[in-house]
Amino acid sequence: xxxxEIICRCEEVTKEEIIQALQAGDTSxxxxxxxxxxxxxxxxxxxCKRLVAKLLSAYLGMPVAHFLPGSIRYxxxxxxxxxxADLDLAGGKENEN
Amino acid sequence: xxxxxxxxxxxxxxxxxxxxxxVDGREIQGIEGEPIAAALLANGIKIFRFTHKFNEPRGxxxxxxxxxxxxMEVDGVPNVRTCVTPIREGMEIKxxxxxxxxxxxx
Amino acid sequence: MNKFDVIxxxxxxxxxxxxxxAARLGARTLLLDENSRPGGQLFKQIHKFFGSKxxxxxxxxxxxxxxxxxEAASLNxxxxxxxxxxxxxxxxxxxxxxxxxxxxxxGKTIILATGASENxxxxxxxxxxxxxxxGAAQTMVNLHRVLPxxxxxxxxxxxxxxxxxxxxxxxxxxxxxxVEALPQISGYAVHAAKVKRAGVRILLSHxxxxxxxxxILEQVILCKLDSNMKPIAxxxxxxxxxTLCLAVGLNPRVELAALCGCHLIYSPVLGGMMPWHDENMxxxxxxxxxAGDLAGVEEASTALDEGRLAGxxxxxxxxxxxxxxxxxxxxxxxxxxTKLRQGPFGEKRQLAKQGIISMKIPKESCx
Lengths: 97, 106, 367
Description:
Chain B is mostly beta strands. Chain B has one helix at about 35-40, and strands at about 5, 10, 20-25, 25-30, 50, 55-60, 70-75, 75-80, 90-95, 95. Chain B is about 5% helix and about 30% strand.
């Protein structure tokens, strides 16, 4: 049985670590992500982003909206390199589907 | 636990085709095409993986392929989302440890 | 071959509604969905809808889904299932994959109907197997006929929490309690009454303090909250449960909309961050429209009508039909949506929607 409270389920970042990051001066989702890896895992922050934003909001006394949506990048969801290679993004041939 | 055969709204379950798969070497049955996670839960298996950092057990969480908590090794491929991957005859499913057997970046 | 007038991303009620309307008025329409069956969360909804006849009152979610699918098929909507979209790029390029294969489509207009994700909570033990979202429980029970456990505690007394609790009982599970942090029930009184009649107790001003278990969930520690929502020391008690369902709301899945450059706004009533849209479901990006939970979390019936509205709006943009004709149809749907957003809960959403529509947002067209 563990007492730790996980915020980022993928990267196993605890509430304690997020609070330490806040105390160290982080003021954005991006900064906390870079320090702790929260939101950097396989799911790309789908469940932890709002939890981290809430902690930021409580600590800094600013509305949650100020911190969301954080950085969003391609691809949306995990994609293999083959999937991207298939696209022939430079133009040229069309895929046959 | 098995499947709910009789349901007040859904009615009686139609006859389904069962498949046999191996989970960590042990044979279990599931209904062809249902998510691997559903078959595992129907067989009372709740732990799907152990995490890379704290070695904590994890299982089904979001059920729609978003949270990636339910990933396992399926036919040698790690990080397969079992809640959205249909089960097929003869699959070899393994409890995943960390990032899976093919991870080299720990 | 890969070029379409309208590409709809997401085949839930909103996406299906959009695709059906666009195709009916002659748009070459593609509908992409990541699941092997379209319908989104409709097929989990085995309860009867209420409201008026034209809003499918008395019909169960899955029947609405089946009818929409038939309609889409008869209108030659090109349907691609098991296809997950991972990007939308300038020029209306939609990138996706199906299995191992990468795919690319081009759309003159794109309707995003990506739905919503469930909110989660964190507390010690919240990652234990057995702690799941309400959606996961619904998926397992109502779609796959598998009970993820025997003894449940449900967190959240919104409509999802109430309905899931009832459905778990229907499937033969024990629901020990519904836990609600607020001092009042969040969902409709009809649902709450039904759940109470089924013998489920609703614990108001309570929260989950901790989930306990060696390797899987065995116990849930609850505690009382004071009027400032702070836990009251000494009020802890334990329930022996093997499953804890989190039904604590939904938030719009904005990733694709954000990447498209759609202007995002924050609406607490509608679930959080969402793309701004006008009364015709158009976003700040001229090619991109939105509908359903992505455009603010509401209900399946509003999602469906918003989808229909977006479908018509896309046709209007493309100039495929007489402008006035389409406009009249759109007005009918708008009137219906206003009717749907009545009552103590609907009114708040109606006000929130009006507020969003009246915002002045710079329109761009980089896509």
